[in-house]
Amino acid sequence: MEEMYSFWAYLGWSKPREIKVMSDGRAYFEIAEQGHCDTCRRRIENFSSAARNSGVDVKYSYLFDRYPSDAKTLWGGIVVPEKATEADVRKLFKEKLNLNM
User: Fold this and answer.
1) pTM of the entire predicted model
2) What is the pLDDT of residues 4-38, one digit of tens each?
3) Distance (Å, rounded) from C-alpha 63 to C-alpha 20?
4) Alpha helices of the chain — where are they, by DSSP H?
5) Residue 37 neighbours by CB under 8 Å, 6+ apart
6) Are 84 and 92 in contact (CB under 8 A)?
7) 3 state DSSP class of 33
8) 35: phi > 0 → left, psi -120 to 50 → alpha, else beta; which?
9) CB count, 10 Å around CB of 48?
10) What are phi and psi of 16, to 5 degrees?
11) Which end of the chain is less enclosed by CB atoms within 10 A, N or C?
């Protein structure tokens, strides 16, 4: 799987999150460090719950560990149109998973 492009999203969390649009037709949102702390655990639970409740097909992956000494970074990917722009991807995450982008 190859990265097509990426950009940053600011959700009011402590740090911005990266979104990577990949060659598998999905855009992956950098959720949090799995097993790192209670805040990360809640963010992963919130994302997973939003995915379940929306019925969106989400694929989870470990694309890139931003903080490799802490824990594995969990990413959640949703299907996006082939020529999706950054604005299109933001809109899909906002509408499908209720992320404040």
Assistant:
1) 0.89
2) 999 999 887 888 999 999 999 999 999 999 888 89
3) 9
4) 38-54, 86-97
5) none
6) yes
7) strand
8) left
9) 16
10) -65, 160
11) N
